[in-house]
Write a structure and sequence with these properties.
Distance between the termini: 52 Å
Number of helices: 9
Shape: globular
Keywords: Catecholamine biosynthesis, Decarboxylase, Lyase, Pyridoxal phosphate
CATH class of the largest domain: Alpha Beta
Strand order of the largest sheet: 1-2-3-4
Family: Belongs to the group II decarboxylase family.
GO biological process, one term: catecholamine biosynthetic process
CATH superfamily of the largest domain: Aspartate Aminotransferase, domain 1
Radius of gyration: 24 Å
Strand content: 5-15%
CATH architecture of the largest domain: Alpha-Beta Complex
Helix content: 25-40%
Largest sheet: 4 strands, mixed
Oligomer: single chain
Low-confidence stretches: none
Number of strands: 8
Modified residues (N6-(pyridoxal phosphate)lysine): 170
InterPro entries: Aromatic_deC, PyrdxlP-dep_de-COase, PyrdxlP-dep_Trfase, PyrdxlP-dep_Trfase_major, PyrdxlP-dep_Trfase_small, Pyridoxal-P_BS
Number of domains: 3
Order of helices and strands: HHHEHEEHEHHEEHEEH
């Protein structure tokens, strides 16, 4: 979806939202469908090819709205309010577009933050099983890549996991926040967080997962809706193409680094990340280079420490990144390298 298609679809969605809220009083407040109704209305796998926006928009009334409890209906008098206003909806659009994240930060990791390394699940899993340890797999960033067959070997040993998490909002074209969590035994988390006062009881309990028992907060956003939109409007093929393109761009940057004898790549680059440093220079020189690069403000990179060595992480992040941006970034970095080396020698 390009900007012109987005503007056309956004107009449709604004009309839909306004129409929905204008006529919400005429809707039944609580759906009269049985849990699981949606399973018969959607396929059991994501489409390989992108679907037209008109098909997704048409499915809102066919698939989504029949099962919605309309909290903003003036006849809704349960619990407490969940706020809604047109200014807030506009602000949420901009927040999604800006996409900045307020950071807050055991397990096996598939794609570590420092250098995107992968733990050996086939080695860790049997140990956890032998000692009856709970094994969680954190694949927050790299998990999206497992829709590409060529990276699924990195999942070998996943059968030992008790839980698995990845973030579609990191690399799968879904806005923040959207985190997909799988549990082998959901009762363990439900037992920990279960909150079941009389005013929350209903006659469908136990028939479908009740996700209020899966977390500390009682309420949660309808995050799966935007994931559903992305899966349908891109299709699995285009999502794979997006991931492969970014991996290729990272490899392009790595080739630039390898072509310059002043630089070193101390660990193998994985996915869309390359870690590099100035070769045969103290950590302070690479740190000075990072400060010069970020001080210029043309690009932004962050550091990491690998086995005591200070490295610069270069990650292909934005959906709109192209080869020219990779080349421009390298030109900026390489042009400042001599200055960093000279400054640290004084």
């Amino acid at each position: 979806m390009d900007s012109e298609q987005f503007k056309a679809a956004a107009r449709d969605m604004v009309d839909y939202v306004a129409g929905y809220l204008d006529t919400i009083e005429s809707r039944r407040v609580v759906p009269d469908l049985q849990p699981g109704y949606i399973k018969e209305l959607i396929p059991d796998h994501a489409p390989e090819d992108a679907e037209p926006w008109s098909a997704v928009l048409g499915d809102l009334d066919r698939v989504i709205m029949p099962g919605i409890t309309h909290w903003h209906n003036p006849r809704f008098h349960a619990f407490y309010p969940t706020a809604n206003s047109y200014p807030a909806i506009l602000g949420d659009m901009l927040s999604d577009a800006i996409g900045c994240i307020g950071f807050t930060w055991v397990s096996a990791t598939l794609g570590t933050t420092d250098c995107c390394s992968f733990d050996d699940l086939l080695s860790i899993g049997p140990v956890a099983q032998k000692h009856e340890l709970y094994m969680h797999i954190d694949a927050a960033y790299a998990g999206a890549a497992f829709i590409c067959p060529e990276y699924r070997h990195l999942l070998n040993g996943v059968e030992f996991a008790d839980s698995f998490n990845f973030n579609p909002h990191k690399w799968m074209l879904v806005t923040f926040d959207c985190s997909a969590l799988w549990l082998k035994n959901s009762s363990e988390i439900v037992d920990a967080f279960n909150v079941d006062p009389i005013y929350l009881k209903h006659d469908q309990q136990g028939l479908v997962p009740d996700y209020r028992h899966w977390q500390i907060p009682l309420g949660r956003r309808f995050r799966s809706l935007k994931l559903w939109f992305v899966l349908r409007l891109y299709g699995a093929k285009q999502i794979r193409a997006h991931l492969r393109k970014q991996i290729a761009l990272a490899e392009r940057f790595a080739q630039h680094v390898k072509s310059d004898a002043r630089f070193d790549i101390p660990v193998k680059n994985h996915m869309g990340l390359v870690c590099f440093r100035l070769k045969e220079e103290p950590n302070e020189t690479t740190e000075k280079l990072l400060n010069l690069v970020n001080g210029n403000g043309k690009i932004f990179v962050v550091p990491a420490k690998l086995r005591g060595s200070y490295v610069i992480r270069f990650c292909v992040c934005a959906r709109t990144t192209e080869e020219k941006h990779i080349d421009d970034a390298w030109n900026e970095i390489s042009s400042l390298a001599a200055k960093a080396i000279e400054m640290c020698k004084k």
